[in-house]
Specification:
Two copies of one chain form a homodimer. Chain A is of the alpha+beta class. The first copy, chain A, has helices at about 1-25, 30-35, 105-115, 190-195, 235-240, 310-325, 330-335, 370-405, 435-445; strands spanning about 75-85, 125-130, 135-150, 160, 200-205, 220-230, 245-250, 265-275, 295-305, 355-360, 450-455, 460-465.
Chain lengths: ~475, ~475
């Protein structure tokens, strides 16, 4: 009897373990075990790569996987800029987060570690141009980082390893699988794209001088926000958008992030346009009879030196209200007039999925050119476009059919749920958020900010002892991008 | 010791059961319990409706929910046609299936039962015009069914309840929540759309004479297949497509379903076109310099009396091969020549998501008009279109950026993964599937079909004793649509 029970216990224990494993995999729970067993999802070009034994970051790793020890110190290092494109819809944002693994950076570092291009994040001298939020995509995110190099001779950004006592460079063992022809650099784009998920692609790279920083050396950033005309007065929006150009205090057109040390809200917008996606659109603009097509797509494109947290989405929210004739274009001037309007009225920012960090400008970087990687990225993207475009036209075909049956076109803004028209409350009549001063007070009380008497009797505010991040507040603070 | 083991066994058994339940829920396994607790997902117009206690079909129900007994016999019944639109991408097909609850019909019957418009499926006199497969959508699916009516006077399709001994009609108790003004019919579309998921909409209804059948009285069916130009020779495809028009044996252009009693493959195609989605496309067709835009969308539209299983997708597969110049248009004539080519070469059908059952023609039905329901459906669809269109343009914007960086456009067909160009094997050189005769033999051996000596010495085949479905094979058999 006891023997039978023992057998039964053993059987059930195995069953419980097996079920737990299934549940973990189904829940996508990324424990180290699962990560190490992770298989790269099938890519569109049919390549799969799955190597056990990759750790994400030394911070979280409890188990060390079966990696062959790799002697990074015998390899040259090179400071480089990498240009990255990604579709942000399936991610919780660009920057690594504690409570989720589903970030672009997490995938990036997995790839950098798997390819042994870096030893770990902490020592990789990593800087990013900006952060994009959950649901936001990028065509031109730029990072700078130190990667393993194959160049044993001086080159831009190259740091050579120490020579051996005999005066030569260390041998690096059998050539790595991906080593390029002698004398040329490692094929960074190819190596990384092979192990990255399909919705994250490296498009270009550039050698960079040692002090070059993606964060501080970016000359300008360009965002795009795509939207359909619907019932919007797009011409009015285009006119209103020009009011953003120039240097203004944008505290009423962003989400203030005082807790992270963002204390001044003056930013410079270099250019703004709203234009049709198809420049040579069908329909003759000179024909007054041609009605505006509600299904026409437009781009709101904005170029600035640097942006505040959610700034572009707040700007877009205002433009959409103007386009729906719920606010006049003057509202922009009023909200930029922080003397008259020191506190931000409560309004929602525009949704995330149409936003793309489209360009980051780094003059002086010698981009090497994506070559074959661009063709592959293009081919994969074309298939994704095809699927999306077909679905869009299935919807559109049904809408045409409904129109033929007598359905009327909706008057509300198609990008937001529900209609705002009934019970619309003008922005300037709404309750306001806390003022900047009140927020500073709040953090001063908690010790995260400190007030000093500055020179000339003025007041200065800087990071306090209890601040989460200690850095010189005179530098552009952790500018969170949209 | 044994007591401890017994306790351990009990504990482990409970753990196994609990884990199994979690796995079932995670896997979306729709057992009756889960169905009964199902909450309608948040609809785009903000309405949610969740009533426990709905049973799907009496066949599977073990639990009966807490429904107030409803006396259907005291209500009039009405034979009606309902026109249904749905987006098929999230469903396992239109028709109810044993191993999944995620079908359009399942949702339909839930709604019909929840609104008490029918008592149960078996007694509802239900017929459907056709079946669409997993991933396939419809703008115009039509069903006929007997619904509860509020008309106590004779009307088209109305069956009055038996009168009470006093010679009057039975009282139907307190007016139902949804009862229409006295003397008018129940608001079928409104009642059902309120409880259906957002991706299934009733667009119209018509009273129907008692014998009217969605299945047998359909005069024609029209399908649409949306596709981008890419590198396809669309003009060649349009010319080739005309070869399908007329009455032909389509056994080589479908998936033969002999096991379900489909024994003859002659079908009539009334019309075929391939045309741009935007009829007034930008670009002057008379301008020989204007290059064909690979991102232009086209519609393959086909109208026929009735279709075989997967017929449209097989036709599209052939047209895509022709468009890629991998086959010549003559291949269509060759495959329709079943005397010369009695067996179908192995080839994959086109993917599912671009296909829409766009129209079903029922002359003589007096459609009542969708009214407000059409506006609601249109508004919801516009929001879905907006989201889809924005995503499409995010892809497109990046593709333009890649082109500007020097990427070349892919030459392969964008609707299928991978390139077929290398190692392409012409259809007529490929291995073939079983012939019709061989398949018939196969089922005759198993008793599901029987051969008889027909009149005049010919042979007739009909359903056998062991056939799954017993019906007269002279009738159009269970014609599975695409």
């Amino acid at each position: 009897m006891c023997d039978q029970l023992l057998q039964r216990v053993k059987y059930l224990e195995e069953a419980v373990e097996s079920l737990n494993n299934q549940l973990r995999m189904n829940n996508g729970c990324r424990e180290e075990d699962d990560v190490n067993k992770k298989t790269t999802p099938e890519t569109l070009d049919g390549q799969t790569e799955s190597k056990p034994g990759v750790t994400i970051s030394s911070k979280k790793t409890k188990k060390h996987s079966k990696q062959r020890p790799f002697d990074f110190s015998s390899h040259p290092r090179r400071h480089v800029a990498l240009r990255i494109a990604y579709l942000g819809w399936e991610y919780q944002g660009f920057a690594v987060q504690e409570n989720t693994d589903k970030t672009v950076e997490a995938r990036l570092f997995e790839a950098l570690l798997k390819t042994r291009l870096i030893q770990d994040r902490q020592t990789s001298n990593y800087q990013r141009c900006g952060r994009t939020d959950k649901g936001v995509s990028a065509f031109s995110q730029v990072i700078t980082i130190d990667l393993r190099s194959s160049l044993f001779s001086p080159g831009l950004g190259v740091t050579l390893p120490d020579k051996t006592p005999s005066g030569t460079y260390p041998k690096t063992g059998t050539p790595a699988k991906n080593s390029a022809p002698a004398g040329s650099e490692l094929e960074y784009l190819k190596m990384l794209n092979r192990v990255l998920p399909q919705d994250i692609r490296l498009l270009d790279w550039a050698p960079a001088a040692d002090g070059f920083s993606a964060r501080f050396d970016c000359q300008s950033r360009t965002y795009r926000y795509y939207f359909p005309r619907g019932a919007l007065d797009v011409e009015l929006m285009a006119e209103a958008a020009q009011r953003f150009v120039g240097t203004h205090d944008f505290r009423n057109v962003c989400k203030m992030d005082v807790g992270n040390g963002v204390l001044q809200f003056q930013r410079t917008i270099l250019a703004v346009t709203i234009r049709p996606f198809e420049e040579n659109a069908s329909g003759n603009p000179e024909d007054p009879q041609a009605p505006n097509d509600p299904y026409e797509l437009f781009i709101f494109e904005i170029k600035g030196l640097a942006f505040l947290y959610h700034q572009v989405r707040c700007m877009m929210a205002l433009l959409l209200l103007i386009g729906q004739k719920l606010e006049s274009p003057e509202i922009i001037n009023q909200l930029l007039d922080v003397a008259s309007n020191p506190r931000k009225p409560q309004y929602s920012m525009a949704v995330d999925f149409p936003l793309v960090l489209y360009g980051c400008d780094f003059p002086g970087l010698a981009w090497q050119g994506g070559g074959a990687e661009l063709h592959c990225a293009s081919a994969a993207l074309q298939q994704q476009w095809a699927r999306s475009a077909v679905e869009t036209h299935v919807y559109r075909g049904m809408l045409r059919g409904l129109e033929a049956m007598g359905a009327e076109s909706s008057k509300s803004c198609w990008l937001v749920e529900g209609s705002r028209m009934k019970n619309y409350k003008p922005l300037l009549e709404r309750p306001c958020c806390e003022s900047l001063e009140a927020r500073i007070d709040h953090f001063v009380k908690r010790g995260r900010l400190e007030r000093d008497d500055g020179e000339n009797g003025g007041e200065a505010v800087h990071r306090g002892k209890r601040s989460k991040h200690v850095h010189d507040s005179a530098q552009p603070s952790t500018t969170k991008l949209n």
